[in-house]
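Format notes (please read before filing issues)

Several people have asked whether sequences and structure tokens are stored in separate files. They are not. Every record keeps both together, in the order shown below: the sequence lines, then the token lines. Line labels are part of the format and must not be stripped during preprocessing.
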Amino acid sequence: MLSPSRCVYRALGRSLSAASRANNVLVLQNASGLSVCRQLVYRSPQLCEFPTSANIFHIRFFKTSAVCRDEVVTVKTPAFAESVTEGDVRWEKAVGDSVTEDEVVCEIETDKTSVQVPAPTAGVIEELLVPDGGRVEGGTPLFKLRKGGVVAKATTSPAQEAPAVAAAAPPTFVTHPAAASTAMPQVPPVPPQPAQAKPVSAVKPTVAAPAPPFPEAGGRRENRVKMNRMRLRIAQRLKEAQNTCAMLTTFNEVDMSNIQEMRKTHKDAFLKKHNTKLGFMSAFVKAAAHALTDQPAVNAVIDDTTKEIIYRDYVDISVAVATPKGLVVPVIRNVEAMNFADIENAINALGEKARKNELAVEDMDGGTFTISNGGVFGSLFGTPIINPPQSAILGMHGIFDRPVAINGQVEIRPMMYVALTYDHRLVDGREAVTFLRKIKAVVEDPRVLLLDM
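Then the structure lines:
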């Protein structure tokens, strides 16, 4: 049995031999894979009798069998982290959509973050194996992708293809006077294939139109939106914290005059040397690391299983970041060994990953203390909730000019309220107040860090 390539060359040789015996031969080549010659157009020495009795050209088509058909691959759910077992699928593409390599096909929303599933190669979505909103585990088949496929809106017949090739041919190839004004023969059109019905999973979910801000006169509307897994997990953890921890909050206020002056004086040189901006967050993160080292009980945690207290000699601070899908807390690790520039670079890197929805579960595991900055939204005062299994959380608020007493005189200073919520089962009031005053001292005068006071 001959291979497809040998069959192609044998058929091509026979056709060229027949064409060499005819006069005024015109060969149009279209090389694509093994299809060396797509059309061979020549004038026959004897005219064929057609109903129109017109002198026309014969067209002979050569079709070859594909040696390698388009490969269909099945893309599976990537492996989750140890603390994540399942997630919900949200499709970005539907059946028949063309995708490029590394283009996101769907997102899997887990309890802690969203995992993007890209296309391994360019192709066409062949089938969706999981409905939108379906629950999957690691290794679950998600969709089938046809490599290198092209979405065809309608079947192209040879009759439509032949005139296009003839029109694209240079005029120097025309050797018969009547050829320029004679139309190509119409080949009977190939009946179009019936449209393949798409499964329910291929239909993209329809986004409901947002409700008007104020109901129309006499109208009362309700819009129900399903809670995503991240929001459900956040709600569950916050309620667990309320039910488990004996939470208590202590407050203080920080004079931001010195830190603002330091930032104003050194921000240009800091940006030039470290290629990052100097903000207030690095001062509070470093102050928290200094205070956690001084008060190890705030950095500790209760193991409810063994009824033991776990003290740590390292500081991993979680920084709360608000995203459209919910609150995430990426972790800055080993803060006790960092300077201001290291902290600013780490915060910027984690913030960029959060904006691009690229945070992994490993980026949010293992924090020993949390800082929440509600001041970016204009918060004046508030009591944060502990992020379990941690034992305390620091709440920052907005900076506002207020009259304060300085050396017996009333002055206008930029002031910030800070709050520390702690688990009273582990942390006593003395330790909590001392911890918060230590943060106040470091932020108001960063020279305390140099003197290790």
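For reference, the curators noted about this record: The chain has a mean pLDDT of 76. The radius of gyration is 36 Å.
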